Amino acid sequence: MDFGKLPEHIYQRSVEKVIHTTEYRKITINGAGLGADCAILPDENGYLVTAQGSADGADVKVAMRAFYAGLNKLAATGVFPEQSSVCASLNVAAPHSLTDEERNKSEMHLRECIRWASEAALTNKVTIISAEVNIVPAMQTYYATATFTARAGQDAIARIQGEKAGKDVVMTKWMGLEGTSLIASARMQELAARYPLGLVEQAADFDRFLSSVPEAATAVQSGVSAMQAVREGGVFGGLWQLAKANGVGLVIDLKQIPVKQETIEVCEFYDVNPYELLSGGSMLMITQGGTRLVSQLAEQGISAAVIGRTTDNNDRILVNDEEKRFLEPARHDSLYRVLAIS
């Protein structure tokens, strides 16, 4: 199988159909399945919400990226650390080291991994309640997961419920941010031979945009109907999941999807499709007043754009001037075409 997120058809037949969900679905609002990024269980005081983010790579920010992947999923349900009690558990799998020198370097790398995740937790007022690290002989790179548990009030989930069809689709920030940052960081010397070093360094710094919590909070106050954290499979993957989770069709104008020039340059250099590039930090939203929400986000210093509409059928249509085509299920992320398992 290819690197990255499991394709939908394999997930359905080998994961979703195998998990025994019948009994627990009687007591959950949301749970395991395509488009279900969080499990939401009602309790006597409101809701118990869980989410998990994961990331892999040789970079020292891998655990931080997993942290934000999970935190953004919580935010997409309307749950925020500022308003709820949120804690997280970290798990890091690291490659085996053969020599003393390799072990020392690995320990320093691990310390930096945990430090970046810890600082992200402190910034977002999340308590890390456990951190488990395993050295795995077969691993060729680091793999991190961050599992979140939150207790939310009675009104937390209800704030983003409502009719989904016939509304605007808003996208925050720019597509491909996380993937651009990873590629630029890992291939800086190669890219700097073609582009100005400042452009490459700016691209590598795109991980500063990874948190989607501020825009999600603004969207909830605006009366958003649904949100989807974008990541694996890029914006195309996020759009597919948004439609699947909310039972709507889409008409999306490709020219309205925001993208940074640095992402364009990086993708052209490596022949990568920017629409399928890892896009952590962006959020897709369904709302009645897209233009109004974009203005509200702009007041908070957050870039966003109306990129299309939802429909009351199952068609997911991409429009590029006069050309129209159907959106397809997300494939493996374009990031792996460049970095593979490095």
Task: Please summarize what this structure is.
With 342 residues, this protein is α+β, with helices and mostly antiparallel strands. 35% of the residues lie in helices and 25% in strands.
Characterization of this structure:
The structure is a single chain. By secondary structure, the chain is α+β, with helices and mostly antiparallel strands. It folds into 2 domains: 8-158, PurM-like, N-terminal domain (60s Ribosomal Protein L30, Chain: A), CATH 3.30.1330; 162-339, PurM-like C-terminal domain (Phosphoribosyl-aminoimidazole Synthetase, Chain A, domain 2). 35% of the residues lie in helices and 25% in strands. The protein has helices spanning 8-16, 62-76, 100-123, 177-186, 188-192, 197-204, 213-222, 234-246, 261-270, 290-299, 335-339, and strands spanning 38-43, 46-57, 85-95, 127-136, 142-152, 168-172, 226-229, 249-253, 283-287, 304-311, 316-320, 323-326. The strands form 2 sheets. The chain has a 7-stranded mixed sheet, sandwiched between helices. Strands 1-2-5-3-4 form a 5-stranded mixed sheet. Helix 2 (62-76) packs parallel to helix 3 (100-123), helix 4 (177-186) packs across helix 6 (197-204) and helix 4 (177-186) crosses helix 9 (261-270). The longest helix is centred in the first third of the chain and has 24 residues, at 100-123. The model is unreliable at 24-28 (pLDDT under 50).
Bin the strand percentage. Answer: 25-35%
Low-confidence stretches: 24-28
- As laid out across the biggest beta sheet, the strand order is 7-9-6-10-8-11-12
Please, what is the CATH homologous superfamily of the largest domain?
A: PurM-like C-terminal domain
Number of helices in the DSSP assignment: 11
Could you report the average pLDDT, rounded to the nearest whole number? 88
- H/E series, N to C? HEEHEHEEEHHHHEHEHEHEEEH
